[in-house]
Fold this protein.
Amino acid sequence: MGDAYNYRGKAKAKLGDINGAISDFNQLLLIQPKNAEAYDSRGNLYRQQNDYNESIQDYSQAISINSNYALGYYQRGGAYLEFETKLKAMAYQICEFVVKSSSLQWLTFGSKMLPLVVPFENWDASQEVIEDLRIAVDLFQKEKDVENYEEAQRLLNTIHPDYSEPKFIIIYQNICSKKLQISKSVLRRYHLGLKTRKFVILSGISGTGKTWLTKAYAEAIGAKYRLVPVAPNWTTNEDLLGYFNPIGEGYYQV
């Protein structure tokens, strides 16, 4: 019975029947009160209706059921961010109305509204957003969920631009914590090479960890990473468009 409500609720959501979908998930949660995904799905529906209070409560409930539920942290952080943005926009519009109002309007509405609006205009949820997104990024990375990891990282970088690069010892410890073995001296040479030249050419036979090093370092400092495959005998920019793999007998586009 629970699966039936789940499937029907998702179908209704796709058809735009948000209230009907919420009703089905309500029934599902009566049957399966510990279903974190159901709380997450209902939270998404409330969020579509701009009911951020209910959506945040559902995301929080999903997290309380499963503390490693990455989507719950990601969705809650996004809901906090949207709620703050819309709340401040509404407060600004009301304040603008009060400022431009006539004396009679001020006496009737403005003097009563302004004390209520100012706290919302100054409300700041950035700490909650950053904390949730950081947890989501870590969990997505552990789950190897590349798409959601990149999206959560992008959103985090957008709202937290005052990034400062971690110290070398922190970078080294971060890489070692992933059970990857590299000497501190080799990593330091790579680190300093990027600092002085902005690019580093790594030479060596296949399988020695060249690609792994670049990816692990980028993740350790929170940088964007993109792997561009080229042919082994790459000498011109033409191969940046892709290459033909004779083993798989297929053309791989970049």
Remarks:
- The radius of gyration is 25 Å.
- The chain has three domains: 2-134, 165-223, 225-254.
